[in-house]
Design brief:
Radius of gyration of chain B: 29 Å
Number of domains of chain A: 6
Strand content of chain A: 15-25%
Shape of chain A: globular
Low-confidence stretches of chain B: 1-78
Distance between the termini of chain A: 64 Å
Low-confidence stretches of chain A: none
Largest interface: A-B, 110 and 130 residues
Helix content of chain B: 40-55%
Oligomer: heterodimer
CATH class of one domain in chain B: Alpha Beta
Strand order of the largest sheet of chain B: 10-11-3-12
Structural class of chain A: alpha+beta
CATH topology of one domain in chain B: Gyrase A, domain 2
CATH architecture of one domain in chain B: 2-Layer Sandwich
Structural class of chain B: alpha+beta
CATH architecture of the largest domain in chain A: Beta Barrel
Number of strands of chain B: 13
Mean pLDDT of chain B: 75
Number of strands of chain A: 33
Chain lengths: 888, 482
Amino acid sequence: MAGRNITKKIGALEFSVLSPTEIRKMSATKVITADTYDDDGFPITMGLMDQRLSVIEPGLRCKTCGLKVGKDKCPGHFGHIDLAMPVIHVGFVKTIRNSLRATCRKCGRILLTDKELGEHRKTIIRNNAEGRDNAYVFKMIISSAVKTEGCPRCGTQSGKIDLDKPTSFRENGKKLTPTEIREWLEKIPDEDLPLLDINVKSARPEWMVLTVLPVPPVTVRPSVTLESGERSEDDLTHKLVDVIRINQRLQENRDAGAPQLIVEDLWELLQYHITTYLDNQTSGIPPARHRSGRPLKTLAQRLKGKEGRFRSNLSGKRVNFSARTVISPDPNLSINEIGVPMEIARELTVPVHVTIQNLEWCKNLIKQTALAEKPGENYRPRVNYVKRYREGVEQRMKVTEKNAEDIAEKLELGFVIERQLMDGDIALFNRQPSLHRMSMMAHRIKVMPNRSFRFNLSVCPPYNADFDGDEMNLHLLQGEEAKAEAEILMKVQENLMSPRFGGVIIGGLHDHISGCFLLTYKDKMFSKEKTSEILATFKYKGKFPDVHEVNGEHLVYGRDIISVLLPKDLSLEYKAKACFHCDVCKAADCPYGAYVIVKNGKLKQGIVDENSIGSFKGRIVERIIRDHGTTAGRIFIDDVTRLGIAVVTIIGFTTSIDDEDIPTEAKRQIGEGLAKAQNKINTLVTAYEHGELESLPGRSLEETLEMEIMRVTGRARDMAGEIASKYLGLNNSAVIMAKSGARGSMLNLSQMSGCVGQQAVRGERISRGYKYRTLPHFKKGDLGASAKGFVANSYKSGLNPTEYFFHSMGGREGLVDTAVRTSRSGYMQRRLVNALEDLKVESDGTVRHTGGEIIQFMYGDDGVDPTRSTTGKAVDLDRIIYDVKQEG
Amino acid sequence: MAKPVSKKKTTPKKAEKRKPVPQKTIPSKTKKAVSKSKSSQLKKQIKEVKSTSMQKPPSDRKKKPVATEKKIEKKKEPERTFVPPPTKKEEEPKEYKTIRMEIHKLMKNQYLPISIIDGIIEQAAPDKKIQGKLKNIIEKSLQEYAKNLIDPTEACGMISAQSIGEPGTQMTMRTFHYAGVAEINVTLGLPRLIEIVDARSSPSTPMMNIYLRDEYRVNPDLAKEIANKIEITRLTDVADIEMDLVNIFISIKPNKKTMEKKGITLEDLLERIQSVRKLSAKIEKENIKVTLDEPGYKVLQNTNETLKNLKIKGIDGIKRVIIRKEPNEGYVIYSEGSNLKEVLDIEGVDPYRTTTNDIHAIARELGIEAARNMIIQEAYSTLSEQGLNVDLRHIMLVADVMTADGTVRAIGRHGVSGEKSSVLSRAAFEITVNHLLLASQRGESDELNGVAENIIVGQPVNLGTGAIELVMNTKKPKQKGK
């Protein structure tokens, strides 16, 4: 056990170019056969699947190190191919070109005088010391060296070096062979290399012209045996086969003294194969293709991009101990909990170290496995595996019905059992896209029947989840440290406050808000029985709220019921969501009950709605969390949501198409208003046609007309909405939802019952379609309201065909917009994260890069955590002064 | 590693300028703007920048205005008229001063942000009752402030990135919208935010708010005059151009009305036309006759084109201006198109408050610190215009990262991300292969300080709980009592 706790830390990673000697040195074998397996299916020695390059079949041993794949892991060994003729490395073409242009073809020195070189050297050293970028110096060296006519040392005239993309060079129009290039590069002395942006310790320019090609281990390019018994080789292997084959032919031809032309052709072919082996998307050459026509995935493609090694396998990995299934709501769970299906609970495990304290308990758990599960019985966790360590080697035993008793008996201290999930285990719950840290929070597990993950509705907003088929992931923590951290930092109750703005993001929604609204609206009273029923939903055990006798009935005020949940020291005054925003606020005397007053934990007056308990805005929730801590906050949210649902259940709450009914009188008024608007538009159009329209400053006449018409149609819609809402009172469920902030808005309602309004595409009235008109139903050049997408009908009354068409146009724009937006904002966020991920607040309050560079001298100029600040303010002054005043 | 230390050196100006003694000079400028309405925000912020710089201790106070002036003077030699910095806003009432003194006494060398102290004074001044409780208030404020401080090792960058990125999905994509001034189109929403973060060399819809000085802002005629100086006027805007193909000349018939409106005389026009090469012009009655030095149809055609586009008056880049009267301010000029450098040269323009949404222009003309403020302001107003609530501190951090080395750098592979010191982190972001090849050629070494690198090699990250190294000694449990 002792050995497992020590972890090694990697200090640094160095990068360098492999030299030919190094390639040969690390090579396990030279590869000369362009073939993989012989007829018996055995790897050919010195072939591409040579067993010295490690093995892929389980059970076989590597011929170099003697280790197997799997357990003790042979890391794989490189081989090499000796190239008959040197070949240019595509990745380094630019460096090669610069080196050729900047150096003398005879003496290899940079084409600048010693004095100039010395100066450049000095600037480079200075820039390095100051942490500046040297790129401009290198650019300057090369550009000035290119301009130099003759070498300042030997006087050799330098030719013009051209690069024919991707890999061939010409000097004064004459082709330079890779051999010549290599010889040239060899001449460049070490002391000139730093001026060409080459580190002598890690690279030599001539290494960028390959003479030896490393062959990656077999483990890097495993072959797959298909069901038919046929072997399918990796793309890299295919490419290597090509390289070896051409290399062989080139060698034979050259040795046989074949004509120069043939040798050169083969040489170029070899260059092509090696270029595509390194990067199959090199511009200027056709990508190498598989027999089926699919381009091969060679080295560069393996690393690159979203599906590449870096982003797909190194920065993010597949994990064990995780589950994914559909989510569904369960209002009876606490916000901290998550319902996990039994099937998942049986499969996932948590390691438990066997100690003196829990030995018996562990044995018991193991024995459970032997007991058959009876239908209808409660879930009891079992043990899936028992692990023990002998001399640091792990032994893992599967616990089955048969061996459970045996294993239980043999259980010793120091063993680790992998126990199935049980209630109270902590797990991370996540929904993609994980846009912020609240997309991954810790929950306590509750094992439940059925097959979906279940959680409290209040937790939907941070995950941005709904239940139209969303799936979510669950990850089990395997270490004590991880569990403790998750418990303290990641639990839902620790994330009630958003770091984006200093406010709550978890609170009541939909029915919870409707419920509280109904409970507190207009001095609503409940009978003693109903009150008990409501209070029982959250297992209230305290004092029964005050009972009043009204007309011989014993009734309880709704606001007294909700007061039961408020802490005794809570005092608050604020405006409810239902506020009408009158010109002069009468504050405490609000006739609509939209001014909420809570004093010493008692709701004195006012409607409790979105502004009290809702997510993002809930004042009461926020205050409880700030003053009484996250646990109190969690309990409040749990209880108030249950209370809301209970109220909604008791009173009954439903909305239907009738809710959008408005009296004929209202319809008449709306019709009149729309006709007026219609007239106004017509006069505008006539004025425009007669050239009497006065244009707005900086606008053409057409633009002015459009703007005016848009304004008129906008006002017409508002007018219809106003009239409609005048006739839709607070006895209407849809209005209650809109006013309390539970769901929907007055705009939605007015569109349903009043008038849908102007449809717009790109912020303008709909104008395209046919020549000079939107649809063949209209006259050419018609600028009227209905011809340009004004929908005078309401959703309830129904749209006519042209209106419907225009409405669909607007809707389509919305859909396209969302599709474009998600990808654009996703990329922006990725960039932001990449740029800012390394910043941290140091103990001295500065914000620094992990490298040490200071970004801010004090975080946010005042060192305040946005999560803790009250909507951005460092200290909630109003509150302090209010409190101090209250104290007397 | 030599880098971190030296990078600081490269930006000493910024560091000093910002807040050498953070204890005293934290500007309250940005914070206050949060709750203010948008239109007043801009003015407010600018005012506060000024007022805070006035409040700063003497050594610090001078720096900013002086630096700007120096720059201006150096670049524009004789023409530039010196504009005195705005006079200190009316002295603080005596009452305020005494309360401030008392607060400082009560704080006992502890620190509270200036905005909080100002807040207390504002509330306390009219209310004797509160004045009596100052001690209590200060104590509570200090307590709460200490409680609200951010935790060390917090991954504040990641939080900021998420806080700005997450609401991006909720923003509209609609490029054009009418904001503030209905007559001017401005890019808004996600495209604008991306533009800011990208640090594009010029915004897709450049725009300026030109504030005026003294009498210019009250007198509509003077304001109009400035507007005429700024707005670009081409020959076609003020005159009809006619080609006479028979006699090979061009006659220019000025439109009197517009000429007058724009304040251009016939002589001005002539002078401008004469500046064009290879032609001669003279006034004939009310028109201008242009004859060519080397007559020819082709030349005539070409000259006609050049004359059409001939700039008579105005500043390059400014397409349109609109004058509006703002409450409590007087006349303000809004312009479509931007050219900060030349607009600042015009007499009557208030160089201390005039802004543009072209961040690079601000960085060039007013310095990096001003650019930082503009990034903050632009990003914040873009977000709040969409009704999205994001804490200012997150935006400040982004702006500071973008401007940390004294230049405006983009967030992305051409800027901040491309200049990271870690090879692995760069490779994991974009253009993987090139970064790896270049790193090997340069013999770079990755010190594994950052987040991405450590994740790649499978180590705990040096942030948050990962930054703390605490190991329990399991071998020798301490002998206690028993």
